[in-house]
Every structure is written in structure tokens, then in C-alpha cells.
Amino acid sequence: xxxxxxxxxxxxxxxxxxxxxxxxxxxxxxxxxxxxxxxxxxxxxxxxxxxxxxxxxxxxxxxxxxxxxxxxxxxxxxxxxxxxxxxxxxxxxxxxxxxxxxxxxxxxxxxxxxxxxxxxxxxxxxxxxxxxxxxxxxxxxxxxxxxxxxxxxxxxxxxxxxxxxxxxxxxxxxxxxxxxxxxxxxxxxxxxxxxxxxxxxxxxxxxxxxxxxxxxxxxxxxxxxxxxxxxxxxxxxxxxxxxxxxxxxxxxxxxxxxxxxxxxxxxxxxxxxxxxxxxxxxxxxxxxxxxxxxxxxxxxxxxxxxxxxxxxxxxxxxxxxxxxxxxx
Length: 328
Ligand code: SF4
Prior knowledge:
Layout: E1 4-19, E2 25-40, E3 44-48, H1 55-62, E4 70-75, E5 78-79, H2 85-89, E6 95-98, H3 112-122, H4 128-141, H5 158-171, E7 176-180, H6 188-205, E8 208-213, H7 216-219, E9 225-230, E10 233-239, H8 240-245, H9 250-257, H10 298-302, E11 308-311, E12 314-316, E13 325-326
Parallel strand pairs: 3-8, 3-9, 6-7, 7-8
Antiparallel strand pairs: 1-2, 1-4, 4-5, 9-10, 10-12, 11-12, 11-13
Helix pairs in contact: 3-4, 3-5, 4-5, 5-6
Bound molecules: iron/sulfur cluster.
């Protein structure tokens, strides 16, 4: 069995912003631009970047909410992008999504028990006589009381609703869960509880996660490896400990320097990024980060750097690191 559960190969997604009279695009937004990486079986891959970097678009292509403009997505060796819609839908059960907003992602007219039962019924995973027991089991797994089964989403707090969302994702017995900023809408005090729950469930159910987050502090403890995206491109990939202790890319270094540190001995100088993220409709030529990079040199404005392996398992897309093999 291959070590990689998912492989993205040169994946791109463009959205037409403006079209001419004949429908031909005259202005396009490059949300994801030629991104290649893999997610290993059983790992939590943290995907981080500022708003508009393409991380959520990439997750939505994986769960079949967006169709890629170019490139391939392999799942257990099968190219999902080559499948017809009916065949593609067979994989929806295996790849579930936990939404960012627990308020908007649950149908307010359904009880939480029925919400959790829905994927079991749609995918005909169990005989009807066993569905109720499975729902109660899932409620228990995510730390909700079984007597709450007949309550409606409005009767729950944000953290509890996210637990319902997690139970619904688990109900389909997925192999992979795309967690799209699952704690960003929650109070800080609740975030750690939900992250711990996801971590426990990963071990118990041998799950694989694509964990999408805005900041590096959120993915630190849950991720085995972390990828950093900027303006539709992958900038750096490394094992969690390596990335946090030895960030190579100037963008990752800036993101890490913004994380508050309690221990004064470990404090580093904050790197302030100048200006806003450029528009993905008209990204800078050369390196996407060159307009905000304090280390930029001439070549950065002319040539886009490739994602290369700088040390074993540690990849960076930056001209500062030359003698290394391109990412495969
Ligand atoms: Fe900065 Fe140049 Fe590296 Fe881009 S390639 S991150 S602009 S040094």
C-alpha cells in the first residue's frame, strides 16, 4: 500500500472575474497555481496561509466542491480528476469536510441526531435498525450526551455545534477529513478542546487530516507536517518540528515571528511584513512574495522559484536555496 493517501500534481484553480461578449475570460483570479504535494496515510498535514492564499480552494477541490482548472488529484492511486461525476461521487464518502462555521454548516430544521445519521443513510452504510445506535455512539465519541440527540443546533454552543459537525464527518467512516479552519470561529478557550478532540479521534479511527488554518500557532500541535501557502503557491513544506525550529522561507519566518511567545528566552524579533497581500488577479511576476520580502534580490522579480528539497523532507520555494532537487 502506498505511503501517500493523496497526491496533488501541478494543481491549479482559476476563477473568471470578467469575460468578454463571447464568454472568453479577460480577467482571471489564480486561486491555486501549479501546486504539488502529498498527504501521507495517517498524518495530519497542516496547510497555512493568509486569507486568499488558496488553501481553502485547494481543500474544496479535494472534496469535489470545486473542479480543478488543471493538474491532477490522486487518492489511493486513483486520479480523481479523470473520473466521471458518478464515479467521482463514490469517493465523497471517503473524503469528508469539517466546515469553518459551525453556525452555518448545520441544518437548523434537523435534530442533531438526524444530522449525524444523514451520511449513514445517504451512503447506505448500515441497516436502518442499526443507525440509531451508531448515532448515539458517535455523540459519545465527540463528547456530547446521548440524551441531546433530539435537540436542534440552535440549542448548542459554538463548540458543541462543531462537535456535531465532527460527528457528522465521522459518520461516513472517512479515510481523510479536510478540516477547513475548524476552530477559527470558536472562542479561544474552546479551540484547544476541539483540537484535542480531533487529535484523539485521529488516533482512534486511524484518520488522515488536511488541516487548514490561518495561523501557524493553530496547526502546531496537531500537524505531523506543515505546508505554507502564499498567493496560490506552496512556499515551504516541512515536518512540524523542523518548520517551527528552522523555517527557511522568509514568509514562514515572518509568520512564525508573529506568534506570541511566553518564555522571554525564546522570544525572537518580530518581522513586520510591509504592505498587503497583492491581488491574485494580478500577482507579482517572479516570486509571488517579492513585493513584501526583505531578502528579495533581482532574480526574485524575474524568475519564479521552484519548490525544492533543501534538506531531507524540508522543501522551500526560494532563490536563497539553490543547490537542491525540485519537488517530486
Ligand atoms: Fe524572498 Fe526572493 Fe526568496 Fe522570494 S525568492 S522569498 S523574494 S528571497
